[in-house]
């Protein structure tokens, strides 16, 4: 089973930046589709950004131009660079790995809290 550990969350002022990291266990990380989700209080979990093994990326409209997902396959790590942070970005951010072996299986990290406040 794939294990994921997020880090990098914290308190930041509006307009500031954070870089989240997600370290994955196991082999063949380069073949996993990776994604970042977030869940704010009173709201449903939503996709923030995703990255497939072939390099394709997708972003939520609310973060386009501000967030960037990247991955270092040699280190089994995916990153989310967050710039120009807004209070509405406050949420718990979760890392997800998708592995396809006859069926599709999603693995989730424990989440890391991001709070954007003056």
What does the secondary structure layout of this molecule look like, with pairings?
Elements lengths: L3 E4 L2 E3 L5 E7 L8 E7 L6 E6 L5 E3 L7 E6 L4 E6 L8 E11 L1 E6 L3 E5 L2
Parallel strand pairs: 2-11
Antiparallel strand pairs: 1-3, 3-8, 4-5, 4-9, 5-6, 7-8, 9-10, 9-11
Summary keywords:
118 residues, mainly beta, seven-stranded mixed beta sheet, four-stranded antiparallel beta sheet, 11 strands, 0% helix, 54% strand, globular
Would you write up a description of this structure?
With 118 residues, the protein is mainly β. 0% of the residues lie in helices and 54% in strands. It contains no helices and eleven strands. The chain has strands at residues 4-7, 10-12, 18-24, 33-39, 46-51, 57-59, 67-72, 77-82, 91-101, 103-108, 112-116. The strands form two sheets. Strands 2, 4, 5, 6, 9, 10 and 11 form a seven-stranded mixed beta sheet that branches. Strands 1-3-8-7 form a four-stranded antiparallel beta sheet, with no helix packed on it. β5 (46-51) and β6 (57-59) form a beta hairpin. It is globular and about 45 Å long. The N and C termini lie far apart (40 Å). The mean pLDDT is 94.
In a few lines, what is going on in this structure?
This protein has 118 residues and is mostly beta strands.
Write down how many β-strands occur, each being a DSSP E stretch of 2 or more residues: 11
Rg from C-alpha positions?
Answer: 14 Å
- Work out the strand percent: over 45%
Number of helices: 0
Mean pLDDT: 94
Question: How far do the termini sit from each other?
Answer: 40 Å
Helix content: under 10%
Task: State the assembly state of the protein chains.
Answer: single chain
What global shape is seen?
globular
* Main sheet characteristics: 7 strands, mixed
Secondary-structure element pattern, one letter each: EEEEEEEEEEE
Low-confidence stretches: none
Q: Which class of secondary structure composition applies to the elements?
A: mainly beta
């Amino acid at each position: 089973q794939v294990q994921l550990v997020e880090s990098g969350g914290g308190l930041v002022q509006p307009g500031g930046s954070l870089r989240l990291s997600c370290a994955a266990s196991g082999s063949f990380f380069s073949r996993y589709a990776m994604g970042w989700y977030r869940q704010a209080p009173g709201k449903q979990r939503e996709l923030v950004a995703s990255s497939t093994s072939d390099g394709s990326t997708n972003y939520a409209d609310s973060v386009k131009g501000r967030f960037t997902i990247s991955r270092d396959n040699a280190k089994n790590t995916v990153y989310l660079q967050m710039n120009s942070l807004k209070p509405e970005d406050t949420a718990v951010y979760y890392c997800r790995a998708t592995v396809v072996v006859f069926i599709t299986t999603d693995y989730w990290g424990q989440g890391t809290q991001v709070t954007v406040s003056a």
